[in-house]
Write a structure and sequence with these properties.
Number of domains: 1
Strand order of the largest sheet: 1-2
Structural class: alpha+beta
Strand content: 5-15%
Distance between the termini: 18 Å
CATH superfamily: HIT-like
Number of strands: 2
CATH architecture: 2-Layer Sandwich
CATH topology: HIT family, subunit A
Shape: globular
Low-confidence stretches: none
Number of helices: 2
CATH class: Alpha Beta
Order of helices and strands: HEEH
Amino acid sequence: MIWRGRHVSDPTELGAEEARDYFEEVLRVGRAIERQYKPIKMNFEMLGNSLPHLHTHVVPRYLNDGEPGHPPHFMRIDLKDDPKFPEVEYASDLAALRALLDQ
């Protein structure tokens, strides 16, 4: 989730209305991901260390994701070493999530 408003690095820089709008959108995306993928837990991560613009990683977690109870694997590795997600499956999932967001 990327903040599309004026440039800010942290949520503390948002006004009350901006913060409400941003967090409502983050939750809306999180709920759509929950409906589509049925995780056991959702992680919402706002770091901004390497990209100083407000954004939130919305990450579904599963018992079999390799490290339940620890930060997601992608947060600690070089992503270029991970296998690519098949384009057709990516497009299908994206369409399903967009449909859920439109409900």
